[in-house]
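Late entry, evening session. Most of the bench is empty. Finally got around to the prediction I had been postponing all week. Sequence below, unchanged from the version circulated by S.P.
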Amino acid sequence: MLPEALICLLNVALAFAQTQQALPLNALASFTPSNTPKPPVLSLPTSSNLSVTVALCSSGNNPRFFVTNSSDAIPGSSGGKSVFEITLKDGYGNWTGPFRDGGVLAIEDVGQSSFELGVSEQGPIHEILPNLPLLGDTTSNQALLFSPAFAISQNDKPTYPNYTLPPANASLPEPPSDIPNFTLFVSPTSSLTPLPQSGCMLSSQNSTGTVVNQSLWLKDKQGWRTQWLLEALTPATNYTAYVVKDRTKVSGPINFVTKSATFACPLVFGLPYCPNVAYTVPLPPPTGAGSNTYTAANIPAEITTPLLSYLTNFTTSLTSFACGRDWYSPLVGCDDCQREYRRWLCSITFTRCGEPSPANPDSFTRSLPAPTATGLSALQPKDKNNPTAPQKVFSALIPQASDISKARSPNLPAMGSQYSMLLPCIEICTAVDRACPSLVGFTCPTVQFNAAASYGVGYTDSADGDEGQGVTGGPQDRWGNIWCNG
């Protein structure tokens, strides 16, 4: 027979366990100082594999969270068998493991903290997403931003004998029905205090700027994104942006810088036949009341008519090759060729504007390279006075006079003021070369001779063409640097 004292302790423990608040399975529970249990101990459901996530919704306090998969013990900082602390980083923590007999979660140093707890058998409810938001471009007071891609466009590849390609004036396909709830959060980087980077914390803050357009956009083959046009920003200011998915999953941060107050190029976006165009273009200011950007509704016909004609003619020529019963490649087809040609043609037609970073105003090409320019255009020449100093990366920016826009894109009307042209990345050209039949005759300038005269070379791929081995590894990065138009 058990001693009377032990029986009393067991009865007390059993009674305490029965009064613990249970966390719901596959659901989110929110706690504030007014509804946090006292003592802050909660029971966990039975599961062979359970993810317990924590998200801090307030700053100041530093609570600690402990779990155990023993239902008759109270976990804490004193440790013990099968006691684990959920380590927090940036206000977020996760612990996944078996709870075959249930378990207990206890909180120490709660103070006046607000937090969320997620318990799920389907993976973490709270999460830092691996894919980042995407910056389209900025003007002096606008920014075009995209969420991470969330759904691949399910377009069936054309097959013989019904081998048809999309028309030149293509429209976007139907968007997916299951669309995540994305929320954009933007703040001047200088005023962003150290806060928990959780969805509930970011959602409680005031976002800078005004969202004047939010839509779905299929920008590239990575898939559908939510697109935001943000206005009422401050010129020459560094901003930080996050995107929160379904309130609990955070993507970011990324940084971007608005252009100077004298920057004149307007944004061009929302062109279904050129879905990759989402940046500033050297065009005169849009006409019409309240219009300060170009979209498919007001883009000049003298630009689009030749573009669509070129693409129509190319498509007609392309379908005369082995696109149906016979294939010219086991890896790509004529639909891939047309898609990459469209991307290249749009990038060439819509010249991209740029501006040196205010923090590094000398980090760009100061003069147009000669037609015979050679070498790696992504790197500045070594400093002769300091030969041991590392070479610096500069953007493929070339200053342009107000009447030289036709030198790159003959269909663009005169800009009317000076601007800097951001050259396309050479990979936009080589992607067409790889995807199209050799008999099409599409070729790109070579790095050994004159590629650097008209393309940004050496950023994504190396000078020898090694994929992803360039000096930056991509056309832009998460810190707001844009090296070439990719």
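Two things to note before I forget:
Confidence is low (pLDDT under 50) at residues 1-18, 361-368.
The chain has two domains: 18-125, 134-383+390-453.
Will write this up properly tomorrow.
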